[in-house]
UniProtKB/TrEMBL annotation:
Protein name: Deferrochelatase
NCBIfam families membership: Dyp_perox_fam, tat_substr_1
Catalysed reaction, written as an equation: heme b + 2 H(+) = protoporphyrin IX + Fe(2+)
Source organism per UniProt: Streptomyces tsukubensis
Protein EC: 1.11.1.-
One GO process term, biological-process aspect: iron import into cell
GO terms, molecular function: ferrochelatase activity; heme binding; metal ion binding; peroxidase activity
Family membership noted in the UniProt record: Belongs to the DyP-type peroxidase family.
Protein task: Involved in the recovery of exogenous heme iron. Extracts iron from heme while preserving the protoporphyrin ring intact.
Cofactor(s) it depends on: heme b
Length: 412
């Protein structure tokens, strides 16, 4: 997906090479005004800055792409009077902007740009677009709304704020540079003027590339390794679990996926009072290295029936890792691709922090819903978290060169 970075080339040569491989640079004046150095003496970009994820493809980027250091999530509602035509024009603008930005170019073909990310390269930027349940009514496309997009059921542990959930259109932005990520967010928000307004927006982060001695599964704000049992692209059934098949229904969702988005606040003051052993029993894994409590390494399978000297199960029945295992949920699996968040402290000094949970699956009724129902009935972690917002979005397949995301739906 991402080509190896060539540290010996300048930004000008980087972009020129991309154009030579069939990824057009757009209007030459715009690219030159933003991306090209005055001369080839300009220092080469580092590996992080030069890394690029292609915008066009069978699937949208930002799903199986390795998680980035910085993320922004935003939902938009169509303005009053806007419908299918306005939505198509917006997705066309958004796709063109995303194609340029993921190549390290200016946000607009005419060269007009805020300059926020002027000195940076693509930095593994991805931009992913999706449609919410209400979009199809506003766009007059109810007959093409997927059954899988039916509203999620209510869960007893939810404390949801409707103003920070759902939405007509959804955008996920990820990058390994904070300025590059914000630049994309600002550009897309400006593109939406007159067609859609921001309903809600959230900011997240992860560990930066190169911060550890070797690539490692990221940790969440509870200090736990998070994502060990994720499906991997190398798995033979990965596409079957994560992406809608080519003969799926509706046809416009072929190659797409469904994103469940939840803002999960972590009650860190309560969690951090727990002794280490109790924290590990809640999760069912060692905090130090993510290995199951029954031993081995992070990737060792847990021995769920093993008991200790006291006769009790080593991994408790209500341990989070036990409940969420696919083999404990009829094979239900999701690709979790979250960001952590911290939105300050309240008047009592309590952190508003936690996880922007993003789960990808071919069908949420077979992925997220059965797992969350089981968690809702007795997950030991539930005492230390609170689900505060929720959304479900149909994310169509990727756009081919010359197409825009959602074209098969909006021009069907």
């Amino acid at each position: 997906m991402t080509p190896p970075a060539d540290h010996s080339i300048s930004r000008r040569r980087l972009l020129g090479t991309a154009g030579a491989t069939g990824l057009a640079l757009g209007v030459a004046g715009g690219a030159a005004g933003y991306a090209s150095a005055p001369s080839d003496d300009r220092p080469a970009l580092t590996g992080v800055g030069a890394d690029r994820v292609m915008f066009h493809g069978k699937h949208q980027a930002g799903i199986s792409t390795p998680v980035q250091a910085r993320g922004h999530l935003a939902a938009f509602d169509l303005v009053s009077g806007a419908g299918r035509r306005e939505a198509a024009n917006l997705l066309r603008r958004w796709s063109a902007t995303a194609e340029r930005l993921t190549a390290g170019e200016a946000a607009s073909a005419g060269g007009h740009d805020t300059g926020i990310a002027l000195d940076a390269g693509p930095s593994s930027l991805t931009v992913t677009f999706g449609f919410g349940h209400g979009f199809f009514t506003r766009a007059g496309l109810e007959k093409l709304r997927p059954d899988a997009l039916d509203p999620l059921p209510e869960f007893s542990s939810d404390h949801l704020d409707a103003k920070r959930g759902n939405g007509d259109l959804w955008v996920q932005i990820g990058a390994n540079d904070a300025l590059v990520a914000f630049h994309a967010l600002r550009a897309l928000q400006k593109d939406a003027a007159g067609a859609a307004t921001v309903r809600w927006q959230m900011n997240g982060f992860n560990r930066s590339p190169g911060a550890t001695a070797r690539p490692m599964t990221t940790r969440n704000l509870m200090g736990q390794i998070d994502g060990t049992d994720n499906p991997a692209p190398a798995d033979k059934d990965f596409d079957q679990r994560i992406f809608v098949p080519s003969d799926g229904d509706p046809a416009w969702m072929a190659g797409g996926s469904y994103a469940v988005v939840r803002r999960i606040r972590m009650l860190l003051d309560q969690w951090e009072k727990l002794p280490l052993k109790d924290q590990e029993n809640v999760i069912g894994r060692r905090k130090s290295d993510g290995a199951p409590l029954t031993g081995g390494t992070e990737t060792t399978g847990p021995k769920l029936d093993r008991t200790g000297p006291d006769g009790d199960l080593v991994i408790p029945l209500n341990a989070h890792s036990r409940i969420t295992r696919p083999d404990q949920n009829g094979g239900a699996a999701m690709l979790r691709r979250p960001f952590s968040f911290h939105d300050g402290f309240d008047a009592d000094g309590v952190p508003d922090a936690g996880l922007l949970f993003i789960a990808w699956q071919a069908d949420p009724l077979r992925g997220f819903v059965p797992v969350q129902r089981k968690l809702d009935r007795g997950d030991a972690l539930s005492e230390f978290i609170r689900h505060e917002s929720s959304g479900l979005f149909a994310v169509p397949g990727g756009a081919a060169k010359g197409e825009y995301v959602g074209q098969r739906l909006l021009e069907s």
